[in-house]
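quick one before i forget lol
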Amino acid sequence: MKTRIKTKTILAALAITVSLTAMMNGCAVPESIAAKSGAQLWGENCNRCHNAPDPHTFSDDQWDAAVEHMHQKAILTDTETKKVVEFLKSAN
């Protein structure tokens, strides 16, 4: 019985530690992303898998939807996504 309680306590402490670490690290933007412009990120990420369309191709609302889809599909960070959307919308 003591072993079961001890194991649960250790697992709970581990889960809390992992969660707190993830939250703290999630706030930091890597310098490699922070230093890049939206145009650079767009060119690097969108052209990995397909020919990226011209920024004038879509309206702001359409870019919001397209980039949100690619945010998840291309595994872009929130910062990368924001910079890419700002770049694309600046063309309209």
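fyi The helical segments are 2-26, 31-34, 38-46, 60-73, 78-90.
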